[in-house]
Amino acid sequence: MLGTGRMGEAVLAGMIQAGWDPALIMAAEAHEPTARAVHERRGIEFRPAAQAVAGAELVVVAVKPHHVAEALDAVAAALPPGATVLSLAAGVPTATLAEHLPPGTPVVRVMPNTPALVGVGMSVMSPGQGCPPESLELAERILAAVGVVRTVPEWQQDAVTAVSGSGPAYVFYLAEAMIDAGAMLGLPPELARDLTVQTLLGAATMLRDEDASPAVLRANVTSPGGTTAAAVQVLDDASIKATFADALGAARDRSAELGRA
To answer: Which of 107, 125, 155 is the last residue before a domain boundary?
Structure first.
């Protein structure tokens, strides 16, 4: 594991909870206080990067996107033949990863999201050119420890980033707006928060478990002439759906820009 920040540690925690032996996991972390804290919490051994990858079957790259090239350059010579490299760095294409690795190294690009921190993440994988099925299967086993996993062609990753990679922020934005509005309507802030959180949790569970589209579920709550209809009309008048489309388009475009940087 190269990098043990929030996402890197989330994957570590999920692996350990799923039964992986911490003694079989080596990590490298440039920030010494972070390394010490993660070692105390997870029991993972930390080594210099080149030593950490020695003998590795899988190397998870969990550093910031602008540090990926440097991290791979530091371990390329020590990487065992056939080891799979799985990158969690947003926007970094598999071709860029391959440029900093020995020829033929299997690479997998992943777009995770922050709910992985609580075991309900969404991770979307794309294999690099020539990546064998067993490398993709290994990557999926790791990522399944922190949530749901899907595989897409790499050209779809920028859109994936817009929908699920950045998606939790949109939900938090909505929650913030609902809590603030509830307080403005006279509710105690703590109650407004509780109402909002449970409502979002319940609605998400229905979306997951009910055999119905979001449009049908919304219609089931929206009685003609009722309170929900009045609220939805205001949202429609403000072109909220079109605004969301613009927002996700901006996130997709920025992801593509980062990949070209």
So the answer is: 155
